[in-house]
Amino acid sequence: MSGQQRIALFIDGANLYATTKTLGFDIDYKRLLKEFQGRGSLVRAFYYTALVEDQEYSSIRPLIDWLDYNGYRVVTKPTKEFVDSAGRRKVKGNMDIELAIDALELSPYIDHMVLFSGDGDFRSLVEAMQRRGVRVSVVSTVTTQPPMVADELRRQADEFLDLSQLASRIGRDPSDRPQRPMGESGERSRTQQPPRNGALESRYGIRQPQDDDLDV
Questions:
Q1: pLDDT tens-digit profile of 119-157?
Q2: How many domains would you assign to the chain?
Q3: 13: burial class by Cβ within 10 Å (0-12, 13-18, 19+)?
Q4: Smaller CB count within 10 Å for the chain: N or C?
Q5: CA dist., res. 15 & res. 200, Å (int)
Q6: Cα dist. 52→11, 12, 56, 200, 214 in Å?
Q7: What is the model's pTM?
Q8: Which residue range forms the structural domain that includes residue 159?
Q9: 119 lies in some domain
Q10: What residues contact 85, with CB distance under 8 A and at least 6 apart?
């Protein structure tokens, strides 16, 4: 790849978390940023996630804080709770519109869009970006059963990057996983507030969002 190309990353947090969980590894977001900085001029790195606002402590907060301070632009919105036809409580947190608007607005200023998602709903966005002269790479995986990427999205992309093949370059060593804070009963404390800034990386590592496993 040319070192002069202008790149932007668009990370669908919930989708990426589900994919890496299925593949059995965690993302090291510092290494991920470095990987794509080495492929061109990185203009933006967006991370999209919905938040459950009524929780006393959310395990995704430390990750969001770390990303905010370390080169990512985090876009969030509150989840919506509803009851389905079977009377089951569901939580919905879809960030597709926010991601699509940001991508289209940035399209005149980038040459290459890297989309971390396998959601087939993004096919139309990929096509729209291509019409604007932007090359689009989709990052997901076909190594699982079923594949985590929609076939129509993979076909539309200019390039498909399988996350399983990137794991050695952007994954976190499992031995680096920090010990979780524990309450008196041995359960993880729900009230302890996470440390900020540099302490996040040393204590929590660069962790995957556990609250992103939503019905989206």
A1: 999 999 999 999 999 999 999 999 999 999 999 999 999
A2: 1
A3: buried
A4: N
A5: 23
A6: 19, 16, 10, 20, 10
A7: 0.76
A8: 6-204
A9: yes
A10: none
